[in-house]
User: Fold this.
Amino acid sequence: MAKAFASQGDLTEKTISFTEIDKGLYAFTAEGDPNSGVIIGDDSVMVVEAQATPRLA
Assistant:
């Protein structure tokens, strides 16, 4: 039997944090797993979202 994909194999609750990594650069993580990022520019904001579980996404 194949091993379950991470989003299906680990559905436990995770501690969420939103951390500033550098000026205008933030990481949204679930127990340190960097799944999402926010980049704040002068004229716009880019959000990259790739959460670890279907429920979080």
Summary: The first helix runs from residue 6 to 9. Strands lie at 16-22, 25-30, 33-40, 45-49. The chain has a mean pLDDT of 79. Residues 14 and 46 are 24 Å apart (CA to CA).
